[in-house]
Amino acid sequence: MTYIMQLHEAPFAAVKSGAKTIELRLNDEKRRRIKIGEFITFLSREDSAQSLTVKVTALHPFASFQELYQVLPLDKCGYSQEEISTASPEDMNIYSTAEEMERYGVVGIEFELLT
Fold first, then answer.
1. How far apart are CA 81 and CA 26, in angstroms?
2. What pTM did the predictor assign?
3. Residue 25 three-state SS
4. Averaged over 75-103, what is the pLDDT?
5. CA 34, CA 107: separation in Å to the nearest integer?
6. What pLDDT, in 10s, does the model give residues 21-58?
7. Residue 2 belongs to what H/E stretch?
8. Could you list the residue range(s) of the whole structural domain that residue 47 is in?
9. What angle do CA 95, 46, 94 make, to 5 degrees?
10. 60-74 burial, b for 16+ CB within 10 Å, e for fewer?
11. Mean pLDDT (the chain, rounded)
């Protein structure tokens, strides 16, 4: 199975370069269907003709981004070394509401980029 997800320009570039190997999302109904060994095609939000396909290698579910940020390596989640010291679970508030996060929990989707 292949899932489609959109990424903004900076995370898309980080996946393309190999720097980002964990995507952070709500663990909603769509993400709960994802299994290890399946595929995700990331589309650039800025140019949907650009895409990257990855293979899911691990799933890291958590009750909250607070927990996730304490466990997962933030450099693999898309933060640069300079950003890690100021990285905060609140950074994810632009993507999801507190109610959604409480309802679904969150997941770090670990992957390898396919060439």
1. 24
2. 0.94
3. strand
4. 93
5. 11
6. 999 999 999 999 999 999 999 999 999 899 999 999 99
7. strand 2-7
8. 2-113
9. 10
10. bebeebeebbeebeb
11. 96
How far is residue 6 from each of residues 23, 40, 67, 84, measured CA to CA in Å?
11, 10, 24, 23
Tokens of 78: 């898309």
For 60-77, the pLDDT digits (tens) are: 999 999 999 999 999 999
User: In sequence order, what are the beta bridge partners of 4?
Assistant: 41
Domain count, the chain: 1
Residue type, 105: G
Residue type, 34: I
Say how far apart CA 1 and CA 107 lie, in whole Å: 18
Domain harbouring 54, CATH code:
2.30.130.30
Beta bridge partners of 106: 26, 62
How far, in Å, CA of 96 to CA of 105, rounded?
11
